[in-house]
């Protein structure tokens, strides 16, 4: 009888590289070829690493495949833990960068939008900003657009409404209202400057 020798386990460095790229890719995910190019490893080695990572149990994150792309995600059984984090006291301590706030505004006023839509409006890459907003639970994935590549669609979440004290997205101020507020602030500032100048 001929015995088939077991395949060698993936190289630890390959595992590290694949895992790191998946982490950075976030909800965009990666194909095997994309991972191979980024990790500078042959596709066969990347596939072996992905299979090993996908079979790893008992961790706070898992590697999964969906429609030919690989993602890093939280295990389903930890959903209640994630929900408590998103809706607990941590939500009141959210601090967003200017990039994240700009991205959130684009999603809120243009939803549903793709990452490409956001980047076209902002003029810069927005993958990190979207990852931040997803991590805080302020935006959610709302399916895929029927277009080449089937890009993910993003919408604001119930957590977004809670954090900003809104009953519905329709409660957001209109662009005209925002412009009026900005004009009022500018006019107020000019009046203060004139008053200060006359006092001198």
UniProtKB/TrEMBL annotation:
One of its GO terms (biological process) is cell division. Keywords: Cell cycle, Cell division, Chromosome partition, Cytoplasm. The keyword Kinase does not apply. It comes from the Bacteria. SUPFAM superfamilies: Winged helix' DNA-binding domain (SSF46785). Gene3D superfamilies: Winged helix-like DNA-binding domain superfamily/Winged helix DNA-binding domain. This is Segregation and condensation protein B.
């Amino acid at each position: 009888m001929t015995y088939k020798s077991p395949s060698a386990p993936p190289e630890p460095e390959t595992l590290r590289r694949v895992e790191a790229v998946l982490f950075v890719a976030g909800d965009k995910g990666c194909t095997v070829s994309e991972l191979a190019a980024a990790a500078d490893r042959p596709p066969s080695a990347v596939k072996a690493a992905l299979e090993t990572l996908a079979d790893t149990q008992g961790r706070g994150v898992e590697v999964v495949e969906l429609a030919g792309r690989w993602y890093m995600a939280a295990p389903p059984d930890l959903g209640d833990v994630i929900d408590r984090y998103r809706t607990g006291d941590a939500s009141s301590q959210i601090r967003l960068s200017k990039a994240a706030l700009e991205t959130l505004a684009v999603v809120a006023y243009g939803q549903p939008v793709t990452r490409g839509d956001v980047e076209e409006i902002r003029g810069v890459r927005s993958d990190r900003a979207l990852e931040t907003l997803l991590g805080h639970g302020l935006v959610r994935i709302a399916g895929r657009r029927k277009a080449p590549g089937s890009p993910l669609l993003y919408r604001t979440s119930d957590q977004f409404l809670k954090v900003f004290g809104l009953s519905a997205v329709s409660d957001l101020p209109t662009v005209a209202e925002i412009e009026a507020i900005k004009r009022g602030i500018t006019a107020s500032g000019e009046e203060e400057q004139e008053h200060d100048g006359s006092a001198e």
